[in-house]
Specification:
The protein is mainly alpha-helical. It is built from six helices and no strands.
Amino acid sequence: MVSNLRHFELARRVTGYAVSAILASLIYVVWLTVSTTFGGVGTTRPGLIFGFGFGLVFLFVGGFALALVLMIVPWAIAVWAHLKTRWDGRIYFPGVGALLVFTLGCTTASILPKPFWIEDQTFLEGAMIAAERQGVCMLLSGIAFGACYWWLERHIPSDIR
């Protein structure tokens, strides 16, 4: 019975992580879609479909999806730390989510290969460019990730009765 409860607890946490990652990815894609479609300068603006396609492609080639994959182990450590410290989850999870998504997002955006027409840059320069261009978006996505995880932790029952 204990083994079944542990499996259920693990499945509950994995589900919470997956749903939170989907929400954060959706926010990231919508942000890029809106900024691409309506944020351009000049008289010609790309269409909404192009903006959505750009956001969806950039989700994978821009480092955000890789950041969510790399965030699995640090997030597990953060959840374990929350169980030990019992800090308020309403502040803890969105804060840790924002910190991890921003840090790993800028890191992965700097590490990923660049197209040939982009000049060479150091790791720090690449991370700074990612922070300037996508920093607010990554922070908001990370806050939404953590808040969604916290909400699911509170609303999905932790044991089978």
